[in-house]
Amino acid sequence: MKYVIGIDLGTSAVKILLVNQRGDVIQERSKSYPLFQERSGYSEQNPKDWLDQTILGLSDLIRHFDGEVEDIEGISFSGQMHGLVLLDKNYQVLRNAILWNDTRTTKECQQIYAKVGKERLLKITKNLALEGFTLPKILWVENNEPDIFQKATKFLLPKDYLRYQLTGKLHMEYSDAAGTLLFNISEKKWSKEICELLEIDMDLCPPLIESCHEVGTISLEIAQKTGLSPSTRVFAGGADNACGAIGAGILENGKTMLSIGTSGVVLTYEENAEQDFQGKVHYFNHSVPDGFYSMGVTLSAGHSLDWFKNVFAPEEDFNEFLEDIDTVPAGSNGLLFTPYISGERTPHVDANIRGSFIGMDHSHRRKHFIRAVLEGITFSLKESIEIFRKNGKEINSIISIGGGARNPIWLQMQADIFNTKIIKLKSEQGPAMGAAMIAAVGCGWFDNLQECAQTFIQVDKVYYPIQEHVEQYKKIFPLYKNVYFTTKTLSKELMKFK
Ligand SMILES: Nc1ncnc2c1ncn2[C@@H]1O[C@H](COP(=O)(O)OP(=O)(O)O)[C@@H](O)[C@H]1O
Ligand SMILES: O=C(CO)[C@@H](O)[C@H](O)COP(=O)(O)O
Predict the structure, then answer these.
(1) Is pTM, for the whole model, over 0.90?
(2) From the CA of 424, how far away is ligand 1's center (Å)?
(3) Is the distance from CB of 248 to CB of 238 less than 8 angstroms?
(4) CB contact at 8 A, 175 and 211
């Protein structure tokens, strides 16, 4: 039997899957690393932590592998998008990575609109200037840390940096380049025009490669550190949402995925770059050759739940924490939560909005607050679904992946709030599975990702909407939507005190 490894460099942890030729997950490792949020709106990680924890996870996995290491034929990667890793002339990291959920760059977004123009930016990149994307972060370092910026010779995204460290080969892969805001997504090349208008040296942009492209093998040093064979072939991989989409089988028109990780994403396949959402949702190159996808993003989905658990029950695991939420009725007895704890992206491009609980009274217990958090996150994701539906997409069935798909009550809640069928797969590790599928296709086990999906993607359970809950949520959803508009000014004023 042969094997491949899929590595997902997430925000909370690096997840590693060892998968055989039948698509069975043989071993699974997860190694976490810290997130540094030293000021409101700031979010950073140390790239060294990503590398150390990946090596730890791989060596642990190999120690418990009872086959021949040479039979692990290939590795590929999925990774959190948009994070800025700056390298000096010796390709050493210059500062902590500034992550996708860091929103310090509002001024730089205005700078981009002033120099490039919103229409032109949308035309080239198909996306708005959002604080989370990479280009505003590059400009922030230039504006605020000029000494560091002067030393920068290349920028990379998180999983591309990890791959560089494992192989010594430096590239950026297309699906992730699409999230930088420096990339012409229909021409699949760096935008000379945007670089020139913002006076960014094009040499800062790394060479580009396709997701299934083989970059070489792992380095001897990494082979020694992990126990992997030095002949292990390495394939480029993709952005975590592109890989999540592969792992969920979103490989053709009409399919929709929901991913609840640190962020929350509603994603649908696009055949070309022609669909026009006027920037209301993101639009990126897929890891499927010449495919695209569009998606709405809730900035703090799983992160809101994590935050609430860490503040009020740090000693409990998620299963204990979520144990009695099904004893609370749909709607949490009139308690609403908005998950804007680090600002929002879809449908409100607003780095200053902050979260809230509305409707608290003496009847509410801890379990009502927990259920309200889950409902608020899910309502937020429904706002992305509404955008797609208004733009003519039919969404009757959704494949749910990510950490949020581990809880059956939450999956039922998704079916009830979206009023759609929710499909749970055997492995909720969509992005790592997608990365493993890229390696499987790269190794020649299958002709293409579609063929691989037929073997690798296995359905576990389907959740159907419960009509009584659907009706209840239909009444509450407009109230939820109203909270943004009624708290917007308050949130902005409160920023002065953070
Ligand atoms: N048992 C569980 N039930 C529900 N949600 C969970 C559970 N375990 C983890 N989560 C949620 O999943 C999130 C992590 O998901 P994951 O897909 O691993 O994220 P990332 O890719 O961002 O690292 C956590 O933030 C948490 O909110
Ligand atoms: O910013 C985005 C997508 O635009 C996020 O989806 C990141 O890619 C992080 O993903 P998770 O760690 O939540 O999986």
Answers:
(1) yes
(2) 15
(3) no
(4) yes
